[in-house]
Amino acid sequence: MLRHLIWMMLIFSFPKLSAGYGLSPRAPIQINFPDFPPYYFFDDKGQRTGITTETLTLCLNRIKRPFIFVDLPIERMQVAMQEGSIDIHTYSYHKGRESFVTFGHEALFRTEYRPFVRADANITIKKISDFDTLRLGHILGLRYSPDFMKYVERRRLANTIDEASSTEQNFRKLLAGRIDIFVNAAEPAQYAAQRLGYADKVKALDWVAHDGIYYTAVSNNSRRIPDRVAFLQEMDGCLRQIKKQGTFCALYKNYGLACPRLPHRS
């Protein structure tokens, strides 16, 4: 009886989780936090911010699921999502990814992958073969359309591609003349260029390597979200609600961006 009383006192004396991580006693969900402004990034004070950061935080608190953000480079994130050591990453939908993740149906954002060159470069891209004579940069682990991905793999096997770990590294290589061109998600790259003071030194070309529509994706091996279908239904319900209420568009406007028209994945 005394032992039982002591255990009860210990249980109820534990502090509750802070509101920022929800109120659920379940183990915190681990969400990858990529360097992908304006959707995920650190502000000048070192605080996590961004449109999708705020969107996920809002919905996870509404459905009372505790969570933490973790910082992994792209290649390590891919392995972690396959193993289930992290639970959520924001992926563009590709059927092949369903082998290791389960996708939600409500889109979070959309971005085009376009080539970036120096502002004074006289480079035109109309087809993939136009890259052949150019020194091409690539971020390790980044994925594009199947055709352009095959091209990148061929360049890698031929040792004619310069790989980096971040958009910032590719911009530095571009401006130093080490590469002529690299392909990146347009809005994150433009946001990064502005932040780094490169906005007038680089430009994006019109050719599109990939049109990515991004969704909440849960690792099929997640131990912290065993109910991943039910979990994603809750998240989709929250996203539909905040889109209907205007909260979602208000987030975009707070970052100086127009509210996008995003499709529902059937």
Describe this structure in words.
- The protein has helices spanning 2-13, 51-62, 74-83, 146-157, 167-175, 186-196, 228-245, 247-254, and strands at 29-32, 41-42, 48-49, 67-70, 88-92, 101-118, 136-139, 161-164, 181-185, 202-204, 210-219.
- It is α/β, with parallel strands linked by helices and 266 residues long.
- The protein has 2 domains: 27-111 and 213-254, D-Maltodextrin-Binding Protein, domain 2, CATH 3.40.190.10; 112-211, Periplasmic binding protein-like II (D-Maltodextrin-Binding Protein, domain 2, 3-Layer(aba) Sandwich).
- Strands 5, 6, 7, 8, 9, 10 and 11 form a 7-stranded mixed β-sheet that branches. A two-stranded parallel sheet has the order 1-4.
- The longest helix has 18 residues, at 228-245.
- It is globular, with a radius of gyration of 21 Å.
- It starts with a helix and ends in a 12-residue tail after the last helix.
Outline of the structure:
Helix content is 35%, strand content 23%.
Radius of gyration computed on alpha carbons? 21 Å
CATH superfamily of the largest domain: Periplasmic binding protein-like II
Look at the helices and sheets and give the structural class.
alpha/beta
How many distinct beta strands?
A: 11
Domain count, please report it.
Answer: 2
Biggest sheet statistics: 7 strands, mixed
Inertia-based shape: globular
> Which series of helices and strands comes N to C?
HEEEHEHEEEHEHEHEEHH
- Average of the residue pLDDT scores: 89
**Spatial gap, N to C terminus:** 56 Å
| Strand proportion | 15-25%
CATH class descriptor of the largest domain = Alpha Beta
- Percent helix, as a range, is 25-40%
CATH fold descriptor of the largest domain: D-Maltodextrin-Binding Protein, domain 2
Unreliable residue runs: 1-25
Number of H- or I-type helical stretches: 8
- CATH architectural grouping of the largest domain: 3-Layer(aba) Sandwich
